[in-house]
Amino acid sequence: MEYQLTLNWPDFLERHWQKRPVVLKRGFSNFIDPLSPDELAGLAMESEIDSRLVSHQDGKWQVSHGPFESYDHLGESNWSLLVQAVNHWHEPTAALMRPFRALPDWRIDDLMISFSVPGGGVGPHLDQYDVFIIQGTGRRRWRVGEKLQMRQHCPHPDLLQVDPFEAIIDEELEPGDILYIPPGFPHEGYALENAMNYSVGFRAPNSRELISGFADYVLQRELGNTYYSDPDIPSRKHAADIL
């Protein structure tokens, strides 16, 4: 299946990329889910695949990690199943990544897919990467706040959230709508009905990761064998001077 993204890339890159969140209504017209909730649940039963269940009942958050053997214990509200890197395991979903190839390949991370029942979500949080969240089947309400210093806390050891925030975006997404969120903007989404969401993530390595990655590149290819030399070194009064 070919997905056609309705987006003016030059305008988007100038006004929004790494700057401001935006809702792209009908970014994908006539959107068709590349997999079903049952297929997603099946992937989460595989030991090689990273998955988790997040639920909240009576004000308490719970997180459990796959592989899962059964979903019979789950109710009809307030939980989400999230599966990482689905594009690596399910070829039809990889087609959702292609429309975003206007951005550098090295920035693309993976496709995370979630299935949520009414009320399902992971709570208010922020990420340090760019993400395009595509609405599949169902509807989901999204709130996004301004990029400010925010207190983070852990209602569960495997769940990092932020305090409540004032929204600059508060919208219901329908199939084919896309929400773009740059790094550092707090956001939260809750399903209004059974809903599928597709998150195309873009990695943003920090300085340490960039240096470490370059060092790995040099070592793996046995580069950097030229020794330091300074045949034209000037004299100095103090040995610690930098000339």
UniProtKB/TrEMBL annotation:
Supply the InterPro entries for this chain: JmjC_dom, NO66-like
Q: Tell me the ranges covered by the JmjC domain, including all copies.
A: 92-219
- Domain of life, per lineage: Bacteria
List, separated by semicolons, the cofactors it needs: Fe(2+)
Q: Which UniProt keywords apply?
A: Iron, Metal-binding
Coiled-coil residues: none
One Gene Ontology molecular-function label? metal ion binding
Extract the PANTHER family matched here: MINA53 MYC INDUCED NUCLEAR ANTIGEN, RIBOSOMAL OXYGENASE 1
Protein's recorded name:
JmjC domain-containing protein
Q: Which organism is it from?
A: Salmonella enterica subsp. enterica serovar Inverness str. R8-3668
